[in-house]
Structure formats: C-alpha cells, structure tokens
Amino acid sequence: MFTIFGIPSAALFGQLLLGLINGSFYAMLSLGLAVIFGLLNIINFAHGAQYMMGAFVAWMLLNYAGIGYWWALLLAPILVGLFGILLDRNFIKPMNDNNTKRSFVMVITSVLAMVVITYLGVNPSLGFAISVGIGVVAATLWDRFGPTFVALGDQHVDHLYGLLLTFGMALIIQGVFRNQYGVSGLPYGIPPQLSGGQNLGFMFLPNYRGWVVAASMFVCLVTWFVIEKTKLGAYLRAATENPTLVQAFGVNVPLLITLTYGFGVGLAALAGVLAAPIYSVNPNMGADLIIVVFAVVVIGGMGSILGSVITGFALGLVEGLTKVFYPEASATVIFVVMVLVLLVKPAGLFGRAQ
Amino acid sequence: MNRSGLLSAVAAVALLAGGSAQAQVAVKIGVLNDMAGLYADISGPGSVVAARMAVEDFKAAEKGIKVDIVSADHQNKPDVGSNIARQWYDQDGVDVILDVTTSSVALAVNEVTREKKKVFIPSGGGTSDLTGEKCSPYTVHWTYDTWALANGTGTALTRQGGNSWFFLTADYAFGSALERDTSAAVTKAGGKVLGSVRHPLSGSDFSSFLLQAQSSKAKVIGLANAGADTTNAIKQAAEFGITQAGQSLAGLLVFSSDVKALGLQVAQGLVLTEAFYWDQTDATREFSKRFAAKFDGKMPTSSQAGVYSSVLHYLKAVEATKAKDSEKVVAKMKEIPIDDALFGKGSVRADGRAIHPMYLFQVKTPAESKGPWDIYKTLATIPTEEAFRPLNEGNCPLVGKS
Amino acid sequence: MANASIAIEPPLGAVKREPRGTAAFHRLIFVGLAVLLLVGPFLLYPVFLMKVLCFALFALAFNLLLGYGGLMSFGHAAFFGMASYISAYSAKVWGFPPELAILSGTVVAALLGTLFGALAIRRQGIYFAMITLALSQMVYFFSLQAKFTGGEDGIQAVPRGRMFGVLNLANDLTLYFVVAAIFMFGLLAIYRIIHSPFGQVMKAIRDNEPRAISLGYRVNQYKLTLFVLSATLAGLAGATKAIVFQLASLTDVHWSMSGEPVLMTLVGGLGTVFGPIVGAAVIVAMQNYLATLGAWVLVVQGVIFVVCVLMFREGLVGLAARLLKRPL
Between chain A's N and C termini, which has fewer beta carbons within 10 Å? Predict the structure, then answer.
C-alpha cells in the first residue's frame, strides 16, 4: 500500500467516497435552489427549512399513518411541494406583485383567528398553522370576490426582499417544528432492504449511502434533461427571460412558475427524506446547511443547473479531503473556495457573464 | 414599556397561598436555560416544572417563605444570558439563578452573580471551571461537571478493559476540556490515548471522522461533543457498523433525552456517566412519575432533577437563616449536609461543588428494555469521594483561604 | 437578470430634492433625540438602553452602506465581532483604559474593512454580498481557532475601567452617558457623511453606476471609502458593546449577527437616516420581552420579516416619512 501526503491511499479513497456522498446532498439541494433562482429569480432561503420538512413528513408518515420509507420517498416531496406552492401563491407572488391589500387581508384574518384559537386553548403549533390557513383562505376569497387587482406588469422586485421573505418563512417553519417536536431529534430507521453494507476492501460502505449517491445522481440527471432538453424546459426558460411574450403565445406562465417553485421545494424535501435515516431528524437540520448550499450555487454560477450539480459533488470531495488534512476547517473551506472563484470568475464557474 | 416586568411578566408564578399571612421571607427564583435550542430537552421548560415541584414539596408557604419563580431563554448565547441575569438582579429582584445549561453562558452568569453578590446554582451547565479557577463564593454547582463525567466514563471503562481510546472532539473550548479531562483519567487508570480528530461544531456528517477513529483501532471511541453532534455521531457509527465491529462508543456528555432521541436500536451499548436516572430507587421513581404527570409524560433528566434538589437545598438554607442574604445562605448551604431523595447523601464543598455519587450506565438493548423509558442499566456506582475532582486540584482561590 | 445588482429601489424617504425646511426639521429631531437620551435612563433600565444604542449604531453603519451606497453586506458581523474581541482583550489582558480599548477595536475594524472592501467592491449585487459573507465566515473560523478569543466561552469579565481616568464606568448611569455620547457621535458622523458632497456622489452611484462612471467619478474609490466608514462605525458599536456587557463571544462574529442589522434596518426603514434607530429599538425590545417565549421568538421574528416585506417594505420610519412628506 502506498501513501499520499502521509495518508494511506486506502483511507484517502474512503474519504473521497464519503465526500462524494455528502456531495450528492449538496448537489440535490443546490439543484433545487438553482432551479428556483434561475426560473423565478428568487433566492429561496427557506430551502433548508423545506429540506427539514421533507425529513419530518417522512417521520410523520411512518408514525401517524404507518407509511414506510419507500412511499415516503414519493409522498413527502409531493406534500412538501404542494406546501411550497401554497407559499408561492400566498407570499412570494403577492410580494412580487406588490399586492399589499391581499397580504393585509391575510395577515389580519390570521391574527384574528389566532386570537380566537388561543382563547379556545388548542395546541399552539397546530393553532398557529390553522390560523395561517384561515388567513390564506380569506385571502383567496378576497382574490375571487374583492376588488380586482391588476399587477403592474413585470416589475423587478429586489433580490433582497425575496431573500428576507423566504428567510422569514424559514424562521417560522423552524420555530413551529421546534415547538412541537423539541430539538433532540427523532429516530428514523434505515429501510430493511438497504441495511447492512459492502466491504470494499478499503472501507465499509453502508448500502444506504450507496443508494443515496445513485438516487441523487439520477434525480439531478433527469432534472437537467427536462430543463435543458425538453419542450417544457424550453417554455420554462423562455418564460423567465420574457414572461409577457411567452404568455402571449398562450402558455400559462404564472402556473408554470408556481409549479417550478413546487418542484424545487419538492427536490429539497426529497433530499430531506434521503437524509432522514442517516442524520438526526430535527428542526435545525437545514438551518446550517442552507448557507453552505447557497455558497455551492454561487460557486456554480447562480441559476446554472449543471453548474450547481457539478459544484455540489465537487465541493463534497473538497470537503472530504479537508476532513483528512485539516478537519477543523472542513466547514470553512467552501467559503474560501467561493471567494477565490468569485474573484477569478465573477459569475461563478458555470454562470453566464452579462 | 413597563419597567419592572421586563422579563418576568409571562412566567411569574406566585406560589403563596392566600391564607398564609405569616410570610417573612420572599425569595425570587430565576430559571435561566435554553428553552428552545440544542439543550432544551436536557433542561428547558422541564426545569421550571422541577423548580415549581420543589417549592410545593418544600411547603415553602407554610414555613413562611414566599417564593416566586421566573424563567427565561438564554438561547445558548453568553451575551443574552449575562444580559438577562443582570436585568433580573438589577431590576426584577431575583435572588437566585438556577440551571443555566451551556458552559459559556454559565461562566458569564457566574461573573454577573459575583459582581451583584447574589446566588447562582448551575445544574445543566457543566464546565468544571465553575468550581475551579473561576469559582465564586456565590456559586454552588449542582448535578454534574465535565470532570465528573470524564472521570467516571474514562476511569470505569478503562478498568473494564477499554484501555485504548480515540477521541472525536468538537472543535471548541468545551470539547477540548472534555477530551483533556478524559485523557487524564484514561492514562491514570492505565490506558492510553491513540489520537483524536477535531470536527467543526454542528457538522451533520461524521462518517469521515468515524472512519479515522475506526482505522486507529482504538477499543473505545470517546465522543467529546454534545447535543445533536453526539446523536449524529452515534447514529452514523451504527450505520457504518463500527460498534458491531467491536469498538465501543463512550458518550462524554450524553443525557437520557439524547438516548431517547436516538432510540435504543441505535444507541444500545453506549456507555455514559450521569448523576441521576429515574429508575433507581423508590424515591426517584415516585418523584419521576409525579414529574412526568406534569410534563407530557416525560421522565426527568439529571439536570431537571438537579434543579429540583438544588431548590430544596437552597430553601432549607433560607429557612435556617431566616433571611436571604447571599453570603449567609451560601455559607449555610455549605454547612448543612445534603440528604436528598434523588441524589442521596452528600455535601457542598468549600469551592461550591455539591458532591454525591455518580453512576456509570449502559444503554439497554431493545430486547432488554421493558418500556419506553426503560433505557439504562447500571454498570457501576462511583462513590461520592471519587466522583468529583479532589478539592485541592481545582486551583480554586477559595480553597486556600478557608 | 442573474447579476441584477441589489440596487435598492430609491427609498421613499430619499426624495430627489429635499422639501424646504427639512434641515430644520431634522435639527428638531436631533434635539428630540438628545432629550430622549438624557431622560431615558431615568425611565428605563440603562443596560437595556445601552444595548439598544449599540445595536442602533451597528444598524446605522449597515444602513449607511446599503441605504446610501446600494451595497448589501452579509459580513458586518466580522467588523462588529472582531472589534468586540480586540476591545475586550485589550481592556482585560493589556489593561487598556476603556477609551483606548474602544479605539483599538475600532481601528482593527477599519483595517479589516479596508481589506474586505478592497476584495468585495470588485463585484456587484449578490456576488458582493456573498464575498462579504464568505470573508466573515473566515473571520469566524479564525476567532474559533485563535487562542486569545477563548473559544465559545469568549472573553469574559472584561473590566469596564475608568474613562480618561476619571469616569467610573462600573456605574451603569455613567457608562450609559458615555455610550449615549458615542452613539450621538456616530449618528452625527453618518448624517454628515450622507449630506456631504461625498454622500451625494454615493447616492448617484447607487442609483446609476454606469452614469456616475461616465461622469468621471472613480466609483471604486468612493465605494471603498464608504465601505471602510461603515466597517469602522460597526466596529465602534462592537467595541463599545464589549465594554458594556463585559463580554466578547463567538455570537458576535457568527453569520446570524450579520442578519441583525438587516432586520433592524428593514423594520425601521431602509435608506432613512433615523430608521435603523427605531428598528433597533423595536427588535432589541422584542428580544428582551419575548425571552420567556422560547421557540416562539423565532416564529415572531419570522412573522415580522414576512409582514414587513409583504406590507411595510418602506419600514416604520419610511412610512412616517411618507405621511409627513419629508425624508427622515
């Protein structure tokens, strides 16, 4: 056996493989973030919270409905994706349209509902969710029966506001889950079909980790293919460049955008379900990850689908190597890379300079 | 802005029964801990419940002591914690602060208490510096400290044959203190330390570090970290088959709430030291069941039990001195022996350390467990004299004087 | 679109030409503020007020950069925190008197600001923000690794000392007036900067950078100067904070600390002179009052973010400015 920089090569291969596994989480999360940014021009800071929700929904499906891992893999992204669509419809879209009256109706109704529900003595987390739900219903009714609202065309709302809005949503989601489930985390087992592992000679690879890499590569590939190579993807890309024109061609642009957000959120939730058996399912699991994933997207080039996937895997590897040579810095190395990349290539590795 | 009720408004609970007009002393107890963060399940709102139970069980009102309890969340931030402590002492008339998880916050509150000459009884906060170099005449350290945990687990495991160690250490002062103390205990007991790896705080992936620990071929992997870091590391160690391959894990700061979160399937076999477990004696079982009835069916953790018994001991001292003068009360607390239903017999030393037996537990296998809370079996009892750092080794300035 | 800069929509407060009497009106506000500062400690807990003032200064410094330069920094915690460490260390270990401790913290923040600024101003918009974030993460890492910072325990029990050898700062009230003076100094400096020719050029750059370039302004030099000024004032706030709370810790350099002034500025009103002060008062009071609520603090903060963005994008002071039809 030979050594590289004093580390046995076998150990190094092991570490690189582990880096790749982590990279697949980064890739999947940054993919969702990049899709949302590229197509909606929103920096979705709630991505970490939505990843956490994916893991929690899987846990809830198991504990409240007896639905196991494989169905959760399908159901959790759909449920969380639908939740994302609700968020888009009721928060992000009104913000983009600057539809303050609608928001006003929603907030006031929610607050009133909260007061009544608190008085009734319902569990606070549930009460909060119900009140917001009532607010959303009221706002939807307002859309239908209130004075007609005409958005001022395609006005550009600053990134900062989208970021702050989604950051606020992330805080709310995390807070509610913390209240309900505490922070120690909840147990979620590895599905029996994937327990055990393979002895690769240089390391012991749990079957489940192998599955994670395969699944995420598959998802990334499919997403890239749909967006870059299909007609639907072409509509999407065109709609983000010039929504008015695409709308004139008879494409339902608002629907397209909403579905895209739902899809991006669903990707985060899928990553959450994949993570549930190996990381602890707790409300904070996405909070620290989001900054790193955000960095991955920036390094890859904001909005570049391929860039985010490749960068995700690559940074997993870089981080894996750091864990061998200078473990303390493994959480910081990504930021060092980011500064270097941005100074050399202003639009990120795969971004289009404008 | 109401000047007096800044923090206490919500949680203030007057426990004085209407009829007892004979109240002579009024004390205000502040429970300050992490109510929602990483350590909320270790102490959190449960500690407030425990403090209330202590006041009721002590029958304070009948003994002429009026007790108010307030609580607040320090969010694990020393600046937030010291700020609240300052305000409680200055504005809200708090006499004693309890619990204070997270060492950095406990140290900050320790300083504020020293300056304001009040009383501080940490239970959830673990650093042994509180009774070492930073010891204060106003502080009584309850429940456990890092030295006791490190010593208990390090010594006992090494004696039982786990004589080579590798550490997974959280890269911050608390982690390295745990590693240092445990290494010392291991070496003293005749074992040796093969190495360690430092991981960033709250990193979610530990597989890489675990692999390094595995290739060290150490018999024991010591986890010198806390909270979600520890639970993640344990979970992933099970996944990578590290425990099955014969290496054992030792949690240096693990509580029963962490074990609950992991589930026995994953945590089985883990060895750890704690000061209290609900299923030890009739008295602990009786207390724990009453506690669970008031707290969503959750059994108390050692920190929460520590808050209960420290409130009892404090109130005893207040009753004995018939005043709440800090110096006198702390002196009295050090004078009267602890005879506690939960922690057994012990005393408070000159450096402020409350001593009592500690226990080495092992997490049961799912087959051994008879109920959702049946999680530990006792491996060893560490007697009071050996459980804590010897008085003269802590460099506490108070020790030389008295 | 991808590199769309964080060009803030011209804040409603900053009407192109200030209506007549605005300067006099501002003078009135300054007088009112001074009176409030004088009376404050007799009505409210001084330590709480000092916290508000430190954070208000921090938010003002941040707003100077974003509101008047259009530069969104995600790394201001680095200046705040590093100044706090240096101030605490020099006061505790080297025995500096408080005025020198605060000064040395501020100077270090200025130097750090020069370094960060030189790197970050080469990029615009979100990339600018990300570079500042990344650099401040490195400062966090350095603070975690360096011996002198004391890890997560921080530097505790920092002596407050005697200012200029006479003022005993151990007394909360004395310290309060010193902090109030520092705050007033910072506020007046910022007001002066905004209304100077330099400030006018900065606003021009914010609103239309290519045009400012074509007019012959050396845009990068202006940006760098503004960045350093902002970093210095953030440092001043951090250094003062260390003396007030006798503590400097990792919280001060953590990335979430960079989010605090953003929240305060947003609530108070972006690009208004007085907005950050109001925002800081609201947020700090909320954190104080809600400390007993546990995890609900998070929810309440989130709700404030969401409601502000959806309904009050101009912030409290921005709203007042619109009603009064005067920039505030």
Answer: N
Measure C311 CA to nearest chain A CA, in Å.
5
Both B67 and B183 in one domain: the answer is no
Across the B/C interface, how many CB contacts are shorter than 8 Å? Answer: 105
Q: Which of B86, B173, B176 faces C47 most closely, judged by CB atoms?
A: B86
Contact B6 C249 (CB under 8 A): no
Mutate to test the interface with B, among A59, A274, A280 (most CBs of B within 10 A): A280
Domain for residue C1, yes or no? no
Instruction: List CB contacts of A169: < 8 A, sequence separation 6 or more.
Output: A45, A46, A49, A87, A91, C302, C306
Both B227 and B370 in one domain: the answer is yes
Sign of CA dihedral A134, A138, A144, A149: negative
Q: How far apart are CA C274 and CA B389, in angstroms?
A: 55
B37/A15 CB distance under 8 A: no
Residue C181 lies in a domain: yes
CB-based burial label for C298 (10 Å; 0-12, 13-18, 19+): buried
Taking CB atoms and an 8 Å cutoff, what residues of chain C touch B7?
288-289, 291-292
Q: Which residue of B lies nearest to A292 if distances are taken between CA atoms? A: B203
Same domain, B325 and B225: no
In a domain, C282, yes or no: no
- Please tell me if residue A323 touches chain B, with a CB cutoff of 8 Å: yes
User: Can you give the CATH number for the domain in which B343 is found?
Assistant: 3.40.50.2300
Position C210 in a domain: yes
Check if B173 contacts C (Cβ < 8 Å).
yes
* Among chain B residues, CA nearest to C281: B1
Amino acid at A53: M
Name the token pair of B150: 């490190």
Nearest to A342 among C1, C4, C130 (CB): C130
C126 with A43: Cβ contact below 8 A: yes
What does pTM read for this prediction? 0.86
Q: How far apart are CA A329 and CA A311, in angstroms?
A: 19
Structural domain boundaries enclosing B41 = 13-144+281-356
Q: Confirm or reject contact between A291 and chain B (CB < 8 A).
A: no
Euclidean distance between CA atoms A285 and B204, whole angstroms? 8
Interchain CB contacts (distance < 8 Å): A and B:
107
Check B78 against C292: CB less than 8 A apart.
no
Q: Residues B190, B164: one domain?
A: yes
Rounded-to-integer distance, Cα B224 and Cα C212, Å: 56
How many folded domains does chain B comprise? 2
Pair B54, B66 in one domain: yes
Distance between CA atoms of residues C71 and C230, nearest Å? 11
Partners of B212 on chain A (C-beta within 8 Å) are 11, 324
Subunit contact C308:A164, Cβ cutoff 8 A: yes
Tell me, yes or no, whether B374 and B310 share the same domain.
no
C304 interaction partners in chain A (CB closer than 8 Å): 168
pLDDT in tens, chain B (402 residues): 344 444 343 333 333 333 444 457 889 999 998 887 778 888 888 999 999 999 999 888 888 889 999 998 888 888 888 889 999 999 889 999 999 988 889 999 999 999 899 999 999 888 888 898 889 999 999 999 889 998 889 988 898 888 899 999 988 778 888 898 899 999 998 999 999 998 887 777 888 888 888 888 899 999 998 888 888 889 888 888 888 888 888 989 888 888 988 888 888 888 999 999 999 999 999 999 999 999 888 899 999 999 999 999 999 999 888 888 888 999 999 999 988 888 888 899 989 999 999 999 999 999 999 988 999 999 889 998 889 999 888 888 888 754
- The domain tally of chain C equals 1
In this complex, which of B3, B8, B73 lies closest to C44 when CB atoms are compared?
Answer: B3
**Side-chain-side CA neighbours of residue C152 (13 Å):** 18
The CATH fold of domain A3-98+151-182+208-344: ABC transporter involved in vitamin B12 uptake, BtuC (1.10.3470)
ipTM over 0.90: no
Task: Note down the domain range covering C82.
Answer: 37-254
Number of H helices, E strands in chain B: 14, 15
